[in-house]
Automatic annotation (TrEMBL):
Organism (species): Halococcoides cellulosivorans
Name of the protein in its database record: 5'-nucleotidase SurE
Pfam hit, one: SurE
EC code: 3.1.3.5
UniProt keyword terms in alphabetical order: Cytoplasm, Hydrolase, Metal-binding, Nucleotide-binding
Source species, domain of life: Archaea
Signal peptide: none
SUPFAM superfamilies: SurE-like (SSF64167)
Amino acid sequence: MTDGPQILLTNDDGIDATGLQVLRDALTDVGSVTVVAPADDRSAVGRSMSDTVRIHEREHGYAVDGTPADCVVAGLASLAPETDLVVSGVNGGANLGAYTLGRSGTVGAAVEAAFWNRPAIAASMYIPVGEDLSAAAVTTDPAAYREAVRATRFLVENAVEAGVFDRAGYLNVNAPMADGDPAGMRVTRPSTVYDMDAVRDGSDLSLKDRIWERMADDDVPDPEDTDRRAIMDGAVSVSPLTAPHTTEHHDALDALATDYDSSA
């Protein structure tokens, strides 16, 4: 334990995941870390919430039979109420594009923290699609997370004091796999490119996210300022995002509401 912020660390890959372990080790040099993470893999559950969860004390924190959002609520309301900053990750796999934000348990934990008015960082590592690359081998290799850990630690040490969270509710960080020279960092926005497909085979439907295949072929038409383009260029992507989501005034909807009131 060291002087510094009180950090609540969670993820969606489970408390035993390599990405969480290497990030925990790095952040213990920055502040006091309390781990509250799912007992098992809860990937792609978004902000799903449970009514009751069982908590198991572990050597390095608390394992929760629940979702990442459960872990954040359990941590901030009970297990680590003095938390200054919530960190979620490092996820074994990228969370790129606007359409992934509601699906990702990693990002969901950061969004949940933002509703508690706690600054939060969601951190993920991009794993390229390829026949010569085993995702399982990458996600269990501590060295692969080096770039994601370096970027996350840098932001934990500097973002709050710099005033980043005066406007951002949370940061969605995506880093390339560590490979040679350190990567640069770009401030980005989530890509709006969307390429989901459904392929039917009799009574079965396979839902496919074609983006990953297109990324493998460098065939994604993402502008320079997007998260996916940054990753494709080998840079760390940092998207400053808000929660609750912003709304805009709509004259057309105002007119419909007036018409509805007069139609009774």
